[in-house]
Each structure stands twice: as structure tokens, then as C-alpha cells.
Amino acid sequence: MCLAIPAKVVELRDGDLAVIDLGGVRKEISLALVEDVWPGDFVIVHVGYALQKLDPVEAQKTLALFAGLAASEAVA
Amino acid sequence: MKYVDEFRDGGLARTIAARIAAEVRPDRTYHFMEFCGGHTHAISRYGVTDLLPANVVMVHGPGCPVCVLPIGRIDMAIELVLASPPTPLRKAGCGPSGRGPSRSLCTYADTMRVPASGGLSLMKAKAKGADIRMVYSASDALRIAREEPDREVVFLAIGFETTTPPTALVVREAAALGLTNFTVFCNHVLTPSAIAHILESPEVRDLGTVVIDGFVGPAHVSTIIGSQPYDYFAEEYRKPVVIAGFEPLDVMQAIEMLVRQVNDGRAEVENEFTRAVTPEGNARAKALVADVFELRRAFEWRGLGKVPYSALRLKEQWASFDAERRFTMTERSVADNKACECGAILRGVKKPTDCKVFGTVCTPETPIGSCMVSSEGACAAHYTYGRFRSEASTA
Ligand code: SF4
Hints:
The complex is a heterodimer of chains A (76) and B (395). Chain A is an alpha+beta fold and 76 residues long. Helix content of chain A is 22%, strand content 41%. Chain B has a 5-stranded parallel β-sheet, with helices on both faces. Chain B is globular. The interface between A and B is large, with 35 and 56 residues. The structure holds iron/sulfur cluster.
């Protein structure tokens, strides 16, 4: 019920709507809850709404943390 | 899939596991509660516990909105629509038994199978003729109301802070469209109040105390409310909280961060899910929720009982969209099935296997208690992914 997925925005449509790509599957969702989203951005999607934008730099830092690297090495 | 697969990498999982093993003190045990069903699901599905040292114990919390929805609320929803059989479309105001147009209930799929009183569930009520429809999104319910103006369309809204903003949006849209046949039966609940309740509720005396050294904090709930609301737990209860994403590596990394905090004697809010969670959360979503909803003085949670200021209802201003104000709905409280241990499981006091009917009478196909309904419930997660492992180890 609370699960949400990161998905790539591929197209903006009228009325705060957008098309996302989920591993090849396309779906229309609402962007009414988020600001400043453009095609190519990743958003966290839940029950048909984007809840938040995904920050690629922070994602990279987290992956570096898993590997035990300092965050600065990851984004450098 | 990008931002999914990298966070499930087996090699990295072993790297984090090795670090956790090196950091835990052999002379103590660490109990961490994952509040969210999403984490419970990830832990069971990816066998995270198998990668942890024996003295790091994960305690499942109440964080599945389906699991905490009490029987009484489902009964109220069923009553609202069961007496109103689907009939061919007719003019508004002249339905059966003189009570106006027939009613339709729209809800998310997971809610359909939650056991209610008298052997019913929404699914069974539907089979009996009630017009109950599964929707993927709150906007689908609104669309049905627009397309079928002769029906009273009630959206049974459930969920934590993730599903609340969409509900707020559709209420405002319905108002903007001037719809008079759309209402919300609001069952939205708040995560921080439930965590506080677990830490201080008087019922722990009956159910036993659960030792909690720290919390794995909700991922998607925090995308909306941010990490700040958890500062209170760190300060007031001296419990570390690490907000974590829902992929297995996120959970493991959070566990490592919790172990470190415990070892250092710290109790802080840390954020592992920085790729989507900020301290403030989503300002636009929070403003929408504040515009449409207000706190209920108390709300019953399945398994936790009445929790003060733990749920929302529509503000007076939006009263005409509130099913509880618009229709006669009587609040009621119904006890769980006697055999069911959901109450203790939701508080982390017992494990699914402690329940006598687990996996025999109660299965995901025939749930007795709500923890067996959604894949994020502790019983369903354990049944689906953990059962054979624990059976093998006890054989
Ligand atoms: S196994 Fe079924 S009845 Fe027992 S606690 Fe879990 S959900 Fe409740």
C-alpha cells in the first residue's frame, strides 16, 4: 500500500499530467504535488501521483556510502 | 530499472553486512523496529535478516495502513453501500427505499480483502450486490463521480501521509467542479502519533514490553512530511531514527547507521534516503493537506486501540464532501477475532509464528486478521517469503 516506485518522466501533458516510463511500461500520472519537473527527471510515484523528485546526486552519494566510499569520491 | 536495481546489489549487501558484523558489540543485543510495511516487505522478501548478526533483531511495526484499519470502519463502509443495490441508472433522488440515489464505494485494491464483521469484507459485500469498485488512484474515484452523476460516489480513503495529499487534491477538484455526488470516507492516519503511542501506550502492560533501541523511519511518508517530525522521538524518547528507502540495501545501510548511533550513545534523526527526502518534505503537498484536513481528537487503530490525534478528517469548510457528515454513519468499535494476534504483532510484541492460526486457518487467501491481507503486513510477508525458511530451520 505504501510502496512507491522511482520512474522517469518522458512527456509532460496538460493539466499537471505527465507520462512516465516504468521499465518499458508507459503510464499517465499527476504532477500536481510536485514542482519544477521536466522530461528526463525521475520522480517517486505512488497511487498515480508523483510524491517527490528524485535527486540523482544524492542517489550517487548513497550508492557510494554502501560501498564504503566517502561521498565526495562518488560525485567527483 | 534505474534507481531500483543498483539498490538491490547482492555484492554490496555483503559489504554492508560485513561492516555491520564488525561494528556490533558481542555483549549486547540491538532491537530495531521498522515502522513501515514497505520495510517489512523488503526485509522478508530479500532475506535481510539472514545477513544480519544474530544479536541484531528486527521488530516489525504497525506501518501498513491496511493492517491498522479497524473492523468497525470497514463495517461502516459496507453498511453505507450494501443497503443500496446497484440498479439501472435513474434520476437522482428517487432510489430504492426513498433514501436517494444508489451509492458506489471506490477504494484501493488492498482494502477489499480486509476481514470485517459477520464474515464479510468489501469483496464479499460486492459479491452480495453492493456497488464497490477498486480504483488505482483517488482521481479515478473522482472521474467515476463525474461520469455517473446519478450515483453517490463515496471514496473510502485510507493510508498514511503518502495517500493523503491526493485525497486533498480530489476534494478540492470536486469543489471546483461543483460536484454534489462525491464524498470521502476519510481514514487517513498519521505516522508520528502511532510511533509515539507504541513508545508510551499503557497497553504495553498487558501485551508485554517490546525493547526498541531505534527506528528505521518511513521512506515515502517522509518524502511528504520530511525528516523533521522525527526529531521529537530522538529528543524526547532518546531513540535514534534513520529514515531509509525501501530497497534492501537502504534498509541494511540504515541498520548500520542505527548500530553506530547505539554504540556511540547518540539518539539522532539521520537520513539514508536523501535521494527523495529533505528535512522539510514536500511543501506543496503539506499545504494542500493543511487546507483540507484537520486532526481528529482520537482514532481507533486496529491493534493499537484509540490513539489520540492520530488521524485526519475533513475541515468544516469541506463538510459537504465528508461522507461521515453527509450520511448517517454510526461510529463503532469491533473486537478482533479472538485467535488473532495482530494487536501484539502490530506493536512488535509477538511474531507471526506466535499466532496459533498462522499459515493454517489464516493465509493470504483466507485472511483472519488484517496483517495477512496486504503484502506489507507482517504475517503476509512472513508467509510469502519467510515461512519455508523458518520451517526448515526448526525441522
Ligand atoms: S496469522 Fe492471521 S490471525 Fe494470526 S496474527 Fe496474523 S493475521 Fe492475525
